[in-house]
Amino acid sequence: xxxxxxLGGLCAIMFxxxxxxxxxxxYGRSFWLWFALGCFLPIVSFFVLFALxxxxxxxxxxxxVDEAKQILAQAAVKKG
Length: 80
Description:
By secondary structure, the chain is mainly α. The chain contains four helices and no strands. The N and C termini lie far apart (57 Å).
């Protein structure tokens, strides 16, 4: 009974750091850095990462760069 409780608690505690690390990795940032920040400052690190991602996504210049990368990747697949 105690082992189940501890294991469930550990899974619940690690959910936010894992989510933060995965989101960071998806956007080209360090998984382990954001995972560690998520362990020590769980709510704060999640909102800081969210703000960084939102700032990047709302930047028109970054959107153009992402579209250009997509077009170049498609051209490389067709060529190769």
